[in-house]
Write a sequence for this structure.
């Protein structure tokens, strides 16, 4: 299962991609264009890499590989080294032909340097790729409405988790509207229970609140404008309203008093939630596997989940999702065997690939996955996630992954200043508008 360590790594580590200006249009060492020969695929080397290793073996033995006159060699790069090694390799004669990424801002520099194959028309003209993936996930990894990646790992939507036992004891129902959430907040505080766990020391858990509120208040178009490079989008009234709403929550004690010293990465926030000190937790879908590993009884008996509520009068659909849609394969524009690269990408839409993801505890982003989820560790939770993403009109990529890496760290700094009271909603908006 992709874990929160991946999530944190992205928030703090993606800035190693910043030196985009130094990227050149150097390509694969085996030449450019043409057909024939082995191609190299860089992948993030974690526990989930076994799914990609099986895919490579399957492809190399296939008729598709024979037809393309090429095979794939998988190069597993340790996670902490991945962004830096990829950036260095892409500026050298030994660049990978295919490489793992997070979509959005993580590939923007390569796109601007002319190093990526635009896959938009390929996807549209190939039924396997066009119909093989959930549309919201394909779109989430795009830049400027153009596709540069094919989904290749599990989905990680952000979900509102709740303690079912606490909710039952206090006669509460999961909120579907913002007013209901505020009502629950008041009742829990009266019972001396912190409404929401929050790992504020890591900052990125704070980001999730703003992501959902901007979507629910202004719709996905607000952040989409920012993602595509227009920093004036930060001045949209929905951003200010979201910041004001967050401040109201903090002032109302929704996260307790010490949230800025609690981390998610060391297990602090999950423990606060599992031990009943907080009744809810807004977190990526990996929260389930985190709780199963650390507090199995809580995960099996008490852990509930629901969608982030609707904001009355807001433009955003309650079915919209934010988070990490998945990871993507992108193709180097200078690949030595484009036919083999594209044939390999098609395997990601196969049922065999989806089955391997499910066996690994992941929820595939393929359109054929629903029938496979009974084999997952928790079919109920798996089906909830899948249907959530399948039905989502829009899936907003986590802001710190979607924006240009140069903007990611200063954006997180401003978010933290808002949460800890060192900035106001108006100053927060003004600071973000200055990001380029």
């Amino acid at each position: 299962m992709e874990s929160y360590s991946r999530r944190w790594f992205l928030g703090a580590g993606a800035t190693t991609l910043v030196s985009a200006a130094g990227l050149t249009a150097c390509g694969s060492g085996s030449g450019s264009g043409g057909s024939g020969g082995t191609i190299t695929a860089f992948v993030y080397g974690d526990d989930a890499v076994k799914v990609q290793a099986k895919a490579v073996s399957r492809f190399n033995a296939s008729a598709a590989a024979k037809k393309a006159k090429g095979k794939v060699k998988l190069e597993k790069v340790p996670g902490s080294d991945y962004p830096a090694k990829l950036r260095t390799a892409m500026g050298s004669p030994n660049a990978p032909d295919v490489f793992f990424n997070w979509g959005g801002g993580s590939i923007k520099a390569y796109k601007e340097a002319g190093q990526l194959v635009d896959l938009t028309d390929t996807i549209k003209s190939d039924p396997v790729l066009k119909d093989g993936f959930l549309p919201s996930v394909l779109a989430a990894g795009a830049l400027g409405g153009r596709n540069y990646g094919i989904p290749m790992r599990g989905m990680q939507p952000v979900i509102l988790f709740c303690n079912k036992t606490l909710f039952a004891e206090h006669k509460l129902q999961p909120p579907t509207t913002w007013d209901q959430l505020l009502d629950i907040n008041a009742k829990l505080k009266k019972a001396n229970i912190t409404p929401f766990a929050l790992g504020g020391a890591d900052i990125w858990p704070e980001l999730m609140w703003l992501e959902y509120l901007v979507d629910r208040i202004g719709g996905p178009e607000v952040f989409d404008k920012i993602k595509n490079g227009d920093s004036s989008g930060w001045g949209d009234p929905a951003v200010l309203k979201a910041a004001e709403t967050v401040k109201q929550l903090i002032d109302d004690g929704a996260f307790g008093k010490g949230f800025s010293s609690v981390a998610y990465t060391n297990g602090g926030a999950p423990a606060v939630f599992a031990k009943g000190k907080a009744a809810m937790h807004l977190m990526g879908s990996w929260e389930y596997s985190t709780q199963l590993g650390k507090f199995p009884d809580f995960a099996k008996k008490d852990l509930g989940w629901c969608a982030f509520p609707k904001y009355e009068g807001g433009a955003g659909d309650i079915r919209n999702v934010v988070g990490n849609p998945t990871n993507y394969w992108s193709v180097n524009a200078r690949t030595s065997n484009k036919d083999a690269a594209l044939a390999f990408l098609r395997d990601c839409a196969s049922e065999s690939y989806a089955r391997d993801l499910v066996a690994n505890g992941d929820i595939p982003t393929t359109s054929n996955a629903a029938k496979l989820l009974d084999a997952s560790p928790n079919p109920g939770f798996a089906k909830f996630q899948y249907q959530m993403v399948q039905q989502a009109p829009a899936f907003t990529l986590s802001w710190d992954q979607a924006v240009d890496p140069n903007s990611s760290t200063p954006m997180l700094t401003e978010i933290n200043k808002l949460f800890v009271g060192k900035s106001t909603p108006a100053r927060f908006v003004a600071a973000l508008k200055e990001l380029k």
